[in-house]
Every structure is written in structure tokens, then in C-alpha cells.
Design a protein that fits this description.
This protein is an alpha/beta fold. Helices cover 39% and strands 14% of the residues. The strands form 2 sheets. Strands 1-2-3-6-7-8-9-10 form an 8-stranded parallel beta barrel, surrounded by 6 helices. Strands 4-5 form a two-stranded antiparallel sheet. The longest helix has 18 residues, at 149-166. It is globular, with a radius of gyration of 20 Å. Bound molecules: ribose-5-phosphate. Ribose-5-phosphate is lined by residues 55, 57-58, 86, 173, 225-227, 251-255.
């Protein structure tokens, strides 16, 4: 039985302080449930509303690509500097220690290799397994204009439905076929379709012209993929421009893990994303950290 001796008569109800009712800070996410918002808050830093996602899920269709030959050796040292890790469940369970508390964005589609038609994917992770892995979000590739466009869209809507049951957000990854034009018009179409059909946030590529129209017309947050390896300063410029034009973060892989100094590069990317650092100053930071390493 509880010890009643310590019960005090005086109580303070703070009658002059109304209980706070805060709007959720993330674009288009105010009407989501508590679990969904909490998971998004683990991905998007509540202080900046932005995220540095470290993407190293490429092996799900490419195998051991350059920089990802040994994830334990090459990638895990980067984890402390990322807000979020984007990876496959195979790598999560075989390489990532469960004591690592970074938000996990789980690659949940697959079924093709780079030797075949990439858009012919299906959902490749059961929702129950995502729950077991305590993921913060699930990621699915959407191939607008691709050969298996409809199948990939339905993969996404199924994942949104499954995730909604348990409060797990879905990241739609817009995948562009080799022969398709990567311009703002295409990305406005692709990102908007993903958001309209329920994606909680969308990954796209940065385009030099009119990128702000892509972020403006997408009602949920957009993060940009890094794409193929660029010189470090150029990659930082791309991240900076994307952020200044409305992106809520980066989901960057090769431009970090294929850098000459990945640990320095991810810190420079962080400065651009979370501190609005200019690319030039972030590049100076990169060089300083690289020299000290
Ligand atoms: C590729 O299919 C994966 O979704 C990657 O996560 C994505 O492309 C981001 O990586 P990167 O910055 O290397 O383009």
C-alpha cells in the first residue's frame, strides 16, 4: 500500500498558466497522430526543422558499391554526425549496434537489381518487422513515368496505409529513369503525386532552375538526394541552394561516403543544413577538419 505520510495538503494548480497547445513544426504534418509526429521529430531536428539523413541503402540494388564495401568500417564512424540513418534491414541487423539511438529510415521496397528494370519493385519489408526494428520511417521508391509507375505508386499507398495503422511515416523516394528529364516540372509532378497519395515526406533531386517551385507546390517536407559524387564545394553549394529554396534537409550518400574525408564532409553538410552556413564557409570547415583528422 502507498505510504500516505508524505501526502501534502497544499497543491499548486498554476491557475494563471493556460496549458500550452503547440502546433507541430513540420510542414503539412499538423494533423498527424502523436506517434507519427514523434517519429518525424526524431528525423527532423525540432530546433531547425531540418535533417541530415545519411543514405547508405544503395546496396539493395547495387551491391557493394564504392564506399560501401565495409559499412562497419566506412559508415559507422559517420553515424554520430547524422540525424538519421537510411539503410536496409540486412545492414541494420548485421552491422548497426542496437545501442545506436539515431532515427532509422528503413528501405522498405526492393526486388530488382541494377541488371534489370529498376521500377519493377515491390514492398520488401513487412510492417511488423519495421515495428520490431523500431524504425522512425519507411522509404519506398516511386517511379513516376517509369515502366512500373502504377505498381510503385501502389507500393507507396500500401506502405502509407500500413504505417498509418502504427504511426510510422512513409518517405516517398522519387526515382528518375535514365532517359527522363530531371527538371522542376518533372519533380513538381512526382513530388506532388507522392504527397497527394499520402507520403509524409518526399525525397527528390535538386535542380538548378525553379527548385523553389518544387518545394512550394509539395505540401509536405522535401529532402534532397545527393546524387552522383561531386567536388566537395559543389556538393555543399547544392545542399545550400536546396535548403535556401525550401528543402527541409538532405538524404545524402555518395557525396559524403565517397568524399576524401567523409567524417569532415558530413560535418560540413550539417553546418549548411542546420546553421545556414554558406557553402564557402562550410568548405573551409571541411578543409580544417580534414587537416586535423
Ligand atoms: C538510392 O536508390 C538510394 O535511395 C539513396 O538513398 C539515394 O539515392 C541517396 O543517395 P545519394 O546521395 O548517393 O544519391
Amino acid at each position: 500500500m502507498a505510504d500516505l505520510d508524505a501526502v501534502q495538503d497544499t497543491k499548486e494548480y498554476y491557475l494563471d498558466i493556460p496549458q500550452k497547445s503547440e502546433a507541430f513544426y513540420l510542414k503539412g504534418s499538423n494533423a498527424l497522430g502523436w506517434g507519427m509526429q514523434n517519429r518525424l521529430a526524431r528525423i527532423f531536428n525540432p530546433e531547425t526543422g531540418r535533417t541530415v539523413m545519411l543514405a547508405f541503402d544503395h546496396g539493395y540494388f547495387q551491391g557493394a558499391t564504392t564506399g560501401l564495401e565495409r559499412i562497419d568500417v566506412n559508415i559507422m564512424p559517420l553515424a554520430p554526425f547524422a540525424d538519421t540513418l537510411m539503410l536496409t534491414r540486412g545492414i541494420l541487423r548485421s552491422v548497426v549496434p542496437p545501442s545506436m539511438t539515431k532515427a532509422i529510415v528503413m528501405r522498405a521496397s526492393g526486388g530488382t537489381s541494377m541488371l534489370k528494370e529498376l521500377s519493377n519493385e515491390e514492398i520488401a519489408v513487412d510492417i511488423e518487422d519495421s515495428i520490431r526494428m523500431n524504425v522512425a520511417a519507411m522509404a519506398v521508391q516511386v517511379f513516376i513515368g517509369g515502366e512500373y509507375e502504377k505498381q510503385s505508386i501502389i507500393n507507396m499507398t500500401k506502405l502509407v496505409d500500413q504505417g498509418t495503422r502504427y504511426g510510422i511515416p512513409t518517405l516517398a523516394v522519387t526515382a528518375v529513369g535514365k532517359d527522363m528529364v530531371r527538371d522542376a516540372r518533372y519533380f513538381r509532378l512526382a513530388t506532388r503525386i507522392c504527397a497527394e497519395l499520402g507520403a509524409h515526406y518526399v525525397k527528390t533531386y535538386y535542380v538548378e532552375k525553379d527548385f523553389e517551385t518544387v518545394t512550394a507546390s509539395c505540401p509536405v517536407p522535401i529532402v534532397i538526394a545527393g546524387g552522383k559524387k561531386l567536388p566537395e564545394l559543389d556538393a555543399l553549394k547544392m545542399a545550400y541552394n536546396a535548403i535556401q529554396q525550401g528543402a527541409a534537409g538532405v538524404d545524402m550518400g555518395r557525396n559524403i561516403f565517397q568524399s576524401e574525408a567523409p567524417v569532415s564532409m558530413i560535418q560540413a553538410v550539417r553546418a549548411v543544413v542546420h546553421q545556414n552556413e554558406t557553402p564557402e564557409k562550410a568548405y573551409e570547415l571541411y578543409k580544417t577538419l580534414k587537416a586535423e583528422a
